[in-house]
Design goal:
single chain, 215 residues, Serine Threonine Protein Phosphatase 5, Tetratricopeptide repeat, 12 helices
């Protein structure tokens, strides 16, 4: 059973809590059929099992700290360096999150240098390794950010079935329920997330503003 590594979902959770999707205000938003966009075959290494040397070869040149923080590209544009990383490791969770944040920052569904729209990188990762809970969680968070609450809830519930003490998954599931105005379920997930030590208070404040928070 695959478990989610210790990855920071805080930036995505903050964006979701604020009601911001990466393409929420973009002028180029439209439905994308990733099956028509993606390569027929998905090559690359499973990031979970890649060796330290294999990771170093790619990350030291293309997914540097400056790239991950969206400060500057390493060999070209930010989108190109993140895309290179994702072609080498389709299920690289931090690179996927960086691509999502880049699309959000630049208000576009397809950042400069990226060969695919953001959602298709996520789709590609899921096709590559459908058992990877970290990628499923990212897809759930991204779906919630895009206002697609039912698929978000489905993905995050599956994550929690295998990893019931995942605080960030409970928190983001609560945000998805909140988006559906299911405040009772949102409150239950918020309580669980905070009991597990999740620090962000955005969901609590959203529930409190609706008069639904109980101490």
């Amino acid at each position: 059973m695959s478990k989610i590594p210790a990855i920071a979902f805080r930036v995505l959770a903050l964006a979701c809590a604020a009601g911001l999707g990466p393409m929420a205000a973009a002028a180029d938003t439209k439905s994308v059929d990733c099956a028509d966009v993606l390569d027929a075959s998905i090559n690359g290494l499973d990031y979970r099992t890649a060796t330290a040397q294999e990771k170093y070869i790619v990350e030291s040149y293309h997914f540097t700290r400056n790239v991950e923080l969206l400060q500057s590209g390493a060999t070209g544009s930010l989108g190109a360096d993140i895309a290179f990383t994702l072609r080498a490791f389709p299920n690289h969770p931090r690179a996927l999150m960086a691509m999502i944040r880049l699309g959000q920052r630049d208000r576009t569904s397809k950042p400069v240098g990226s060969i695919y729209p953001v959602e298709c990188w996520i789709d590609r990762a899921m096709r590559f390794r459908p058992d990877d809970l970290a990628i499923r969680q990212i897809r759930g968070v991204y779906s919630a950010m895009e206002g697609k609450y039912d698929p978000a809830i489905a993905d995050l519930a599956l994550v929690l079935k295998d990893d019931p003490d995942n605080a960030s998954a409970h928190y983001n599931l609560g945000l998805a329920y909140f988006g559906k105005r299911d405040y009772e379920s949102a409150l239950a997930e918020a309580k669980r997330a905070y009991a597990l030590g999740f620090a962000l208070q955005g969901l609590k404040e959203k529930l409190r503003a609706k008069g639904k928070w109980t101490d």
